[in-house]
Amino acid sequence: MELSSAEKQYQEAKEKFFEIGVNTDEALNRLKSFQLSIHCWQGDDVRGFENTGGELSGSGLQVTGNYPGRARNAGELRQDLEKAFSLIPGKHRVNLHSIYGEFNGQVERTEYEPAHFRGWLEWAKAHDLKLDFNATCFAHPKAADGLTLSHPKKEIRKFWIEHVKSCRKIAAFFGRELKSYSIHNLWIPDGLKDLPSDRWLYRGLLFDSLEEIFEVEFSQTQLKDSLESKLFGIGSEAFVVGSHEFYLSYAIKKGKMVCLDLGHFHPTESVADKLSAILQVSDEILLHISRGLRWDSDHVVILNDELETLCEEIINALSPEKIHLALDYFDASMNRIGAWVLGARAVLRGLLRALLLPWKQIKEAELEGDSLAKLTWRQLAKDLPFGPVWDYYCLSMNVPPENLWLAEVKDYEKNVLSQRD
Ligand code: RNT
Ligand code: ZN
Predict the structure, then answer these.
(1) Residue 368 falls in the annotated catalytic set
(2) How far is the CA of 113 from the centre of ligand 1 (A)?
(3) Is the pLDDT of residue 58 over 70?
(4) 304 and 230 assigned to the same domain
(5) Closest residue (by CA) to atom 11 of ligand 1?
(6) Same domain, yes or no, for 174 and 42?
């Protein structure tokens, strides 16, 4: 589609929205301000580049599928990310796990250092991208029994404490070098498969480990810490040490932020509902935008009701910039670049939809106690031409409109990915 014909359709759509008091130009301007942190680990099924044969099993994470063409090294992963970014409108961030360093041989996780991430840093600089970071407390023999920072054995805890400390240093290095904070998110698999006999023990140990980790302070302009809870995982069905209450209280007391993963709560619990609750007290929140499906928390994100509601809460926040948006899912059963693009575009589409709702009428109706009008305005808005607004945005940001990106992913699969096996 040409920009000129898209522009014409956009003008028509703009008038339709204008009739109900919605300014599409303003909405698109606001949409530009949202940044997503794109998770590197969808590109290779959470394998990383340690080459130690470390298994995901025992970590509570499971990746299923065997789609051809996964990235096998940092060069391929960066090339794939570049392709994905060329299909996602806007300027975004990259979220790295520590196992994606370029190690040149085997390096113990306690020995990870900024030098192993020079390649990523230079690439980020060249593409004007910011980097976020994650310690990797899984897929390692010392995490094989599903316990790390809360392990009853001191030497195991020590190992993981040292690993996380080294990762926070790397994140701060990114923050300094790229002149933008880097968020270091900590998720650990710790938990028990069956009836815990001493919850106090593990939570006490995790608390002590965190205290040791956070002894080292960094400026918030370089590093922001977040802590990610989970309700249960595979192999930790009965008990998760780092539960929501654990991290929320810890974060509030210590001035850290919590990371809310959409797949880490009870299926009927709404993460959207939590934002306005937590942000009354906490300064910032990290979101792992994912899609839970029955027991699995990591399906590729699509624009469903849950995401729509989340986006509404984000755009209505008093300070939306305090809500950091990251993607988190891994699906090895489809084209991995497509999985990134589909999820990232779903979030941006969700934000745009939310920005285009007739909030004035909806909110007034609510304050007047007119429930019928409140619901009707929402329904009516569904008939307005969203597609032309979105496509115009994509084209004006130099990425393909909605009906064309899939073909580009298929081309890339044919020309690049299929050569990898
Ligand atoms: C696991 C957490 C965590 C991971 C990544 C790979 O349940 O969601 O965020 O997905 O660290
Ligand atoms: Zn997550």
Answers:
(1) no
(2) 22
(3) no
(4) yes
(5) 187
(6) yes
